[in-house]
């Protein structure tokens, strides 16, 4: 109920699941991060006015709308599934109508997350299990390259962290696990956030 109500409050439609049709073994299905999880995450993880978020595999855009609605910061979502991407665009129109604003700083890009060129103003990178670990590794390499070229502290937020993702970050990068946040009353033990940080000085 909370899910539908929150969608209603934002004027968007993000509930439900969409599987990839045919052979797409490396790409995960669409399913949104639960609103209760996002509430808990941002109770603990503090957003600054200067923060900018990329949601890799943004689906219908729930995370972007939620963050913009609460913190008014720019969010970019990348999505590879064409129909799902179109739904994110439609949601943006609905959201703008609902809040009575235009030109809000939410952007959705259609395409492969691994090809997305990172804007150096962005410092928070969000993943809800969008794809296979070899693609995650490519994306993290892109983040590391961006940080090398434009020194800044960056965070990676994983929802439903998979051991393959966490092992890679722990063994192959200098990202440090700084926070673990559980979704209250979640039946699935995987419903939690792991937050990793690569500090400017590291
Ligand atoms: C589990 S959903 C997460 C949706 C959203 N981030 C959220 O938390 O509400 C993962 C999304 O990643 C998309 N995806 C899968 N592979 C991708 C890729 N290589 N590039 C961009 N998006 C991808 C899927 O189509 C799906 O919509």
How would you portray this structure in words?
By secondary structure, this protein is an alpha/beta fold. It has one domain (2-14, 35-198): 3-Layer(aba) Sandwich (Rossmann fold). Helices cover 37% and strands 21% of the residues. It has helices at 2-10, 35-44, 62-71, 82-99, 133-149, 163-172, and strands at 17-18, 30-31, 53-56, 75-79, 106-110, 124-128, 154-159, 176-182, 192-198. The strands form two sheets. Strands 5-4-3-6-7-9-8 form a seven-stranded mixed beta sheet. Helix 5 links the parallel strand 6 and strand 7 (154-159). The longest helix has 18 residues, at 82-99. The chain is globular. It starts with a helix and ends with a strand. The relative contact order is 0.15. S-adenosylmethionine is lined by residues 27-28, 30-33, 55, 57-59, 62-63, 78-81, 84, 112-113, 128-131, 135. S-adenosylmethionine binds next to strand 2, helix 3 and strand 4.
CATH architecture: 3-Layer(aba) Sandwich
What is the first-to-last residue Cα distance?
A: 44 Å
CATH class assignment:
Alpha Beta
Mean pLDDT: 96
The dominant shape is globular
Strand content: 15-25%
Q: Which structural class best describes the helix and strand composition?
A: alpha/beta
Low-confidence region ranges = none
Alpha carbon gyration radius: 16 Å
Query: N-to-C SSE series?
Result: HEEHEHEHEEHEHEE
What is the count of distinct domains? 1
The neighbouring-strand order within the major sheet is 5-4-3-6-7-9-8
The set of bound ligands, ions and cofactors reads: S-adenosylmethionine
Number of helices: 6
Largest sheet: 7 strands, mixed
Give the total of beta strands: 9
CATH fold call? Rossmann fold
Residue share in helices?
25-40%
């Amino acid at each position: 109920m909370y899910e539908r109500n929150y969608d209603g409050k934002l004027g968007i439609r993000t509930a439900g699941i969409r599987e990839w049709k045919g052979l797409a073994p490396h790409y995960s299905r669409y399913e949104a991060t639960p609103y209760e999880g996002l509430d808990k995450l941002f109770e603990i993880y503090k957003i600054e006015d200067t923060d900018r978020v990329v949601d890799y595999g943004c689906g219908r855009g729930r995370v972007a709308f939620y963050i913009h609605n609460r913190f008014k910061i720019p969010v970019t979502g990348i999505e590879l599934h064409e129909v799902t991407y179109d739904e994110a665009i439609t949601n943006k129109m609905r959201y703008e109508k609902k809040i009575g604003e235009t030109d809000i700083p939410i952007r959705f890009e259609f395409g492969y997350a691994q090809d997305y060129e990172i804007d150096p103003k962005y410092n928070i990178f969000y993943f809800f299990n969008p794809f296979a670990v070899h693609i995650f590794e490519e994306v993290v390499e892109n983040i590391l390259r961006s940080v090398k070229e434009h020194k800044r502290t960056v965070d990676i937020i994983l929802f439903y962290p998979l051991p393959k993702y966490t092992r890679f970050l722990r063994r192959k990068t200098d990202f440090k696990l700084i926070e673990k946040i559980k979704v209250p009353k979640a039946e699935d033990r995987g419903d939690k956030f792991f937050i990793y940080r690569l500090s400017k000085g590291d």
